[in-house]
Structures are given as structure tokens and as C-alpha cells.
């Protein structure tokens, strides 16, 4: 089969489409013919050599795909060859085929095209698992950064569906406007004094921050937290090391946690996928959550997709199309 490999750690130019060995299916697994693969910021980190796959996972890049079942492994029930599906992966998505534990494979949202569905499961699983962890509830104030990206735009809509007041940051004016269009009660550019705007809108503080920036905003987030506020760090775009003010944290009885979806064991991922289907798919069907805009690239142009994501010019989600 063909797959995208990174010749070495480096820029987008190290990615190339080559022939690799065919895959074999073990008990409890499914082999999928990939229709499309989502492109995520974690993929950029892996290409750069900063985010190696967990032990036993495919060394290929790619954390989510859509496609059809090609082979059903021993002991797997409920799936037949030819069934449409989406899958949450620990790696291997940038390829014509992928092997996945059956619990991480689910039917796509009813009525959704498989290319559009390819960029959904990683985003939904990340947001649902972290908002569950932090117990976001109706009436609370929620802040998310990168509101015009895949995770941010989904988080805006999902948090609003839970009854939270949603604040979001983005870059250019059109991205800020997009955040408002998908449900953010207030959105502002991170190029301005966004923290001051948050303080004016939420003088009692923010109950939950979903933070993909990391170190650069840590001190600011501590200052913005409400009493018993929660900070959930899911990315390090702004660095990995910063000083935590324990006195400020103690005074607010605050909680700071950091999570990663990729290295979780299959049983945990299967449970998260189950919750996504149960909670998110109905919201997509009834229009409460709208799919984010997509930019698609052929699989052979993975390097261009990575360059586009790194540029910051994209809106919504990027997807590699393998076959239609």
C-alpha cells in the first residue's frame, strides 16, 4: 500500500508518498480502506520529531480517518466488510489502509459525507473527554483559544450546547467573526489585550479554560481563573515550561491539569468514542453543532497540507483525501 512517511525530522518537505508493507489484522482489530485522514497539530509535532507515537503504535503520522471496513479481525462483532466508518488512531492515518482496535471505530454521523467526517472524531473526542474531565456545566464561563480551528470551533459549539457562556480568541478579524458565527458569546483577537476583555466580561473569573497554548499563557490563565476554576492544558504551541504561582492557585482553590488523548489505552479510547457517538452525533444531525469548514488536499500533497496548517491561514479543519 501507499503511505506518507517522514524521511527525517524536519519541515513539511520531509513528507513523501511511498510504497510500504501491507498491514495484517489481529484479533479484536479492523482493517480499513481509508477514504480521508484528518490533519492535526499533533501531526506537525510528530513530523518535527517532538511527538513520537506511543509504544506499539504505527510510526506513520495520522490520528483519525474515515473509510470502509476491509477485513474484520477475529472476535470482532457488529462490523461487516464494506461498512462505512470513522476511526480514532494512535498513528497510521496518512495511508491507504490502517489497522485499528475495533472499539475505536464507529459509524459516521448519519448523512455526513466520509471526507467531511474524516476530520471529526479526533476533535470531538478531545473536546468531549476534556470537558467531561473538567465538569463544565450550565451557567459557567468557558474560554477556548484558537476558536477558528478544528478543536476551537467544535469546543465553542459543544460548550454552548452545555449551557456555558463561551469566550474565544482567534487571530485575524474574519476568524474572530467566525467564532461568533458558530456560537461564541464573545470573541476577540489574541493580537489585542484579550485578557483585559475577558476580565471585563467575566469579572468573577473564568470557570474553565481549554488551553492549547501552554506556557505563554499560564500566568495569565491563573489570574483569570474564578474560584474553583479549572485550567485544562491540551497543547504547547506557546512553550512547555512556565512558572506556576501556587499562592494564586491556592487562593482560588484552582485546578490545573494536562491531558493527552493519543497514549491512552484502547479501552479508554473506546469509551470516549462511545460517548462521542451518544452525545455529539445527535447534535450534528439536529444542527446544534455545524461541521467546521474544510480545506482538502490529496494524500500525495501532505507536505502542502502541513505547510498550510503551519501558516495559520486556515479556517476550520484540513483533510487529506485518499480515495473518493
From TrEMBL:
UniProt KW Oxidoreductase keyword: yes
Gene3D superfamilies recorded: Medium-chain alcohol dehydrogenases, catalytic domain, NAD(P)-binding Rossmann-like Domain
Source organism, top-level taxon: Bacteria
GO molecular function, one term: oxidoreductase activity, acting on NAD(P)H
Phosphoprotein recorded as keyword: no
InterPro entries for the chain: ADH-like_C, ADH-like_N, ER, GroES-like_sf, NAD(P)-bd_dom_sf, Quin_OxRdtase/zeta-crystal_CS, Quinone_OxRdtase_PIG3
Domain Enoyl reductase (ER) positions: 10-320
Matches recorded under CDD domains: p53_inducible_oxidoreductase
Keywords: NADP, Oxidoreductase
Protein name per its UniProtKB record: Putative NAD(P)H quinone oxidoreductase, PIG3 family
Taxonomy of the source species: Bacteria, Bacillati, Actinomycetota, Actinomycetes, Propionibacteriales
Amino acid at each position: 500500500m501507499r503511505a506518507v512517511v517522514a524521511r527525517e525530522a524536519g519541515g513539511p518537505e520531509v513528507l513523501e508518498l511511498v510504497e510500504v508493507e501491507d498491514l495484517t489484522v489481529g484479533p479484536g482489530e479492523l482493517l480499513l480502506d481509508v477514504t480521508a485522514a484528518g490533519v492535526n497539530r499533533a501531526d506537525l509535532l510528530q513530523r518535527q520529531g517532538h511527538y513520537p507515537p506511543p509504544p506499539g503504535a504505527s510510526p506513520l503520522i495520522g490520528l483519525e480517518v474515515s473509510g470502509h471496513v476491509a477485513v474484520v479481525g477475529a472476535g470482532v462483532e457488529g462490523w461487516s466488510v464494506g461498512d462505512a466508518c470513522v476511526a480514532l488512531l494512535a498513528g497510521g492515518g496518512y495511508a491507504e489502509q490502517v489497522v485499528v482496535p475495533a472499539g475505536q471505530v464507529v459509524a459516521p454521523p448519519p448523512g455526513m459525507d466520509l471526507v467531511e467526517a474524516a476530520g471529526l472524531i479526533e476533535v470531538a473526542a478531545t473536546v468531549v473527554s476534556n470537558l467531561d474531565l473538567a465538569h463544565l456545566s450550565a451557567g459557567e464561563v468557558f474560554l477556548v483559544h484558537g476558536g477558528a480551528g478544528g478543536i476551537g470551533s467544535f469546543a465553542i459549539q459543544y460548550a454552548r450546547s452545555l449551557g456555558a457562556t463561551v469566550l474565544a480568541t482567534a487571530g485575524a478579524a474574519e476568524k474572530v467573526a467566525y467564532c461568533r458565527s458558530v456560537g461564541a458569546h464573545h470573541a476577540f483577537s489574541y493580537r489585542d489585550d484579550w485578557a483585559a476583555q475577558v476580565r471585563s466580561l467575566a469579572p468573577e473569573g473564568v470557570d474553565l479554560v481549554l488551553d492549547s497554548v501552554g506556557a505563554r499563557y499560564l500566568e495569565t490563565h491563573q489570574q483569570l481563573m474564578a474560584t474553583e476554576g479549572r485550567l485544562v492544558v491540551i497543547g504547547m504551541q506557546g512553550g512547555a515550561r512556565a512558572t506556576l504561582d501556587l499562592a494564586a492557585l491556592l487562593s482560588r482553590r484552582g485546578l490545573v491539569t494536562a491531558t493527552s488523548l493519543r497514549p491512552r489505552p484502547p479501552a479508554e479510547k473506546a469509551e470516549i468514542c462511545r460517548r462521542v457517538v451518544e452525545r455529539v452525533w445527535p447534535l450534528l444531525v439536529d444542527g446544534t453543532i455545524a461541521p467546521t469548514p474544510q480545506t482538502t488536499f490529496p494524500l500525495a500533497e501532505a507536505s502542502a497540507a502541513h505547510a498550510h496548517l503551519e501558516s495559520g491561514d486556515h479556517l476550520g479543519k484540513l483533510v487529506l483525501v485518499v480515495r473518493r
